[in-house]
Specification:
Belongs to the MntA antitoxin family. This protein has 4 helices and 4 strands, in the order H-E-H-E-H-E-H-E. By secondary structure, it is an alpha+beta fold. It has a single domain, classed as 2-Layer Sandwich (Beta Polymerase, domain 2), CATH 3.30.460.10. Helix 1 runs antiparallel to helix 3.
């Protein structure tokens, strides 16, 4: 499992590519990695906002691409627009944008 700063560095290094190829406007990390509670088998929770709507296939390709960038670590990709009111507030307080 990669540490938070390493994950943020990887995102930072590929941010232009993510914007161009997947229309990523904002991207951040939340969950156990941010809280320092991640285990070796934990996934990386990623919150993303898009510059314009993308389809399901492109969304899934982005999730897979991030997993590759993180060395095979599972990614749980969440669109900011899909956040539910209660859990969304918690995520938005916790997220660390890159």
């Amino acid at each position: 499992m990669k540490q938070l700063e390493e994950i943020k560095d990887i995102i930072r290094d590929h941010k232009a590519e993510l914007a161009e190829e997947f229309s990523v406007a904002e991207i951040g990390v939340f969950g156990s990695v941010v809280r320092g509670e991640a285990r070796e088998d934990s996934d990386v929770d990623v919150l993303v906002d898009f510059s314009h709507p993308i389809g399901l296939m492109k969304f899934m390709r982005l999730e897979y691409h991030l997993e590759e960038l993180f060395g095979g670590t599972k990614v749980d990709l969440v669109s900011r627009k899909a956040l539910k009111p209660y859990i969304g507030k918690t995520i938005l307080r916790e997220v660390q944008y890159v």
